[in-house]
Each structure stands twice: as C-alpha cells, then as structure tokens.
Amino acid sequence: MHFCKLKQDLILPLLFTLITITILSFPLSQDRYAHSQSSIPNSTANATGSGVDLINTNSTANATGSGVDLLNTHPSPTNVKAGSNFEILSTVVNNSPGTILLPAGRCDSPLTAFFKSYNVVIRHTQGCTATSPPFELKAGQEVTVAGPVSGTIYHAIKAGKTPATATVYYLTENGQPGNVTKPFVFTIN
Asked: How many CB atoms lie within 10 A of CB 168?
C-alpha cells in the first residue's frame, strides 16, 4: 500500500511533466514561449526568476564539436538542505552550425531534471501562463539556464548523494525539436 502511494506520488507528476514538455516542444506558434531574453554576447545579465537566466553568454564557446551540450549542471542553492526547495542550473552550449531556440522566461524553462533516488520530491503547483518569443542561442554561444518550469518545485526530503539527469529541450532553426540529457550528482545535507 505504501509503495503504491509512493509510486503514484513520483510517477504521475513525472509523467505529467514529460507530457507537458513534449507538447511544448512542438512549434504551435511564436507566442507560446514566455519572457524571452535577447542574446548579448560576452555580457553578464541576470533575469532572476526566468527560465533562461543570462548569467554568462559567451560567443567564444568551442564550436569544433557538433550539436548542443550541457555543462556545469548543479543545484541552486549549491548547499541544498533536506526540507528545502531548490532549482537546477546548467550551461547550454550551442556547438551546432545553426541557431537554436530555447523556451524562455518566468513561465517556461528548457531545463528539467529527473532524480534517480528518493531524496527529492517533485511537486506541482499553479503555474503562470504569460507568453513571449523564444530565446535564440547562436552557433558557438552558451547561456546558463534555470529549471524547472513554472508550477514545478524540486523539494529535498532527505540527506544523501543524489544522482540525477538534466535534460534541455530546444528547437532547431527549421523548427525541429531536440534535447540533450546529461547525468549529474549532488549532495543533499
């Protein structure tokens, strides 16, 4: 009985999140993204509370590889304590030959995480519905993004090493959906 309740508390919200992200990754119109930021090479800006935080865009990213990559994925705050909420930050590097589009803003985030232990609970609340154009990340640039999307809360429930995977969702220049998933590990104190 307890296992079924735990399974329901973990599987259903995760399934809901994955379905929502899949639906949002298909281009319905330009108006479905929220609070877009403009691309500012070699600058520092921080749109706190938005899905795409322009913490450090850099037009000198290594363009020798192909595709999109995730680097430096970690929780914020960095010292996550049991009983607290947190978000995930990751640097998206565009090593593809063209521009990619990332959902952006206070209501949409291109970044989500899946936790492979029982140290974290994903909670769902009322989210916002504001929309705006996507964030454009040109070839060779990088940007730090924050997740999860509005209406989703990552809540640490017990201390310990926490293995997870981070996934960033994006659209290519010709509107094709894409994603990159990378593992990461952090500790809950």
From this structure: 25
